[in-house]
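Dear colleagues,

As part of the handover before I leave the project, I'm documenting each prediction I ran so the next person doesn't have to rerun anything. This entry is a single chain, and its sequence is reproduced below.
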Amino acid sequence: MEKLIPGVSQKMLAQQLRQLESDGIVLRTVYPQVPPRVDYQLTGWGQALCPALDALLNWAEQRNAG
């Protein structure tokens, strides 16, 4: 994800993901291997936010297009 978000630091990304985990929006799975591997996925609560986030993105695109 770090590569997909321009200008984000690893520290900031980790803080945001931990907060999203704490809020119940993402589920974090750590695999005990070398090198360490961590996966994130949306919880049901996180998936329920998708329509609202899509609406916000559409609103922003319309505002920027005008």
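The helical segments are 10-22, 44-48, 50-65. Strands lie at 26-31, 37-42.

All the best with the project,
I.
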